[in-house]
Amino acid sequence: MSRSAHPAGPRHADVLTEGHYSAPPADLNALDPKVWAQTVERDADGVVTVGGMAVTRLAEEYGTPAYVLDEADFRARARAWRTAFGTDADVFYAGKAFLSRAVVRWLDEEGLNLDVCSGGELATALSAGMPADRVAFHGNNKSPEEIERAVRAGVGRIVLDSFQEIVRVAHIAQSLGVRQRVQIRITVGVEAHTHEFIATAHEDQKFGIPLAGGQAAEAVRRALQLDGLEVIGIHSHIGSQIFDMSGFEVAAHRVVGLLKDIRDEHGVELPEIDLGGGLGIAYTSDDDPREPHEIAKALTEIVTRECEGARLRTPRISVEPGRAIVGPTAFTLYEVGTVKPLDGLRTYVSVDGGMSDNIRTALYDAEYSVALVSRASDAESMLVRVVGKHCESGDIVVKDAFLPGDLAPGDLIAVPATGAYCRSMASNYNHVLRPPVVAVRDGEARVIVRRETEEDLLRLDVG
Ligand SMILES: *Cc1c(COP(=O)(O)O)cnc(C)c1O
Hints:
463 residues; alpha/beta; Lyase, Ornithine Decarboxylase, Chain A, domain 1; TIM Barrel; nine-stranded mixed β-sheet; eight-stranded parallel barrel; globular; binds pyridoxal-5'-phosphate
């Protein structure tokens, strides 16, 4: 990503080294379609609309902050993934990015499968009618109760993450008289983030069983012997917010290498390979994500080529995009509370939410963009930091961005690309209430996750 200091930007040395801002965009009223949901536009009065609804009206009806989700965009992205991979592959939406019953229904209707990683996510999926055989259950420490519920429900696959879990799932399945379909999650020594990947000893993390030292091969050996398990494939997930396909190339090469070793040792060709998720989206105009059909083509070619080299039948591929489907479909709508210029530094814009509705900036140093959405403005741009209302100086939503210099309390601003890992990671820090998720489509809005109330908070406090 190229970064250059704003010519009229701050002079303070610390800020210059710390800042991540690009030059201000030529037109602050423009909405880059890369970072905004598909149906977002600015109307003739300068008000931003989504799905045909003005944000001013959404704010009046549903309050702020609110996550506003473009349902048509969600469905279009889900369908694009489904279509790109065709019938010879499976697309599992990673529910941890954002899960609600409405989302489960949309996925079901669009023909996607679903990844869950906890009893709560499984309960959400089942309560919205997702067929259990299209659900995959992940996680490095599933409880025996969660495993039992998943097996009883008939989930399509459980992704085994440790030697202990191999035995645990086999035992539970056998006691229920079931042969559970499982994949074994391995770590291939590749870690990919954004534009780079590192192919070294990245087994040093909690997920999966290392390929190194023959541990993954040993896991397969044990699992194949257990009556309660039907081993259907190998699973690998290499990172998040990835743009560069070379990490997948190395991962596929190593996974196929294991499939070949398994064939040679056991005489079985496992029928599936799961390459995980982690495909990147545009949070700012500097990001250039790939389209699902390019990703599908690249992954299919890589796996096919590797399998030809190893003289294996090409297994069925599955992928698990979360962020790439839901991330771009939503923005967070905030009302500006205070505007505080700090001489020679920047202007702090405080909104009515913060790290409780978007922890990614504090947690991962994530970058976001922001726009004034309740009106257009011709004012000069100013360098801002959008901060929340929490009692914590790290409570930053957008670290560096430009907004019009006439920004004032009461204006509505929106942070795009907050569909993934924002509501799902939201907290009640400072007893701030979690915002609703409002889905908009064809000029109509409906709440799919309602705003938390003080009553909700107090109900848990039984002291
Ligand atoms: C988190 C995760 C995903 C989804 O990652 P995204 O970055 O949202 O695409 C997919 N598979 C597994 C196993 C994961 O842990």
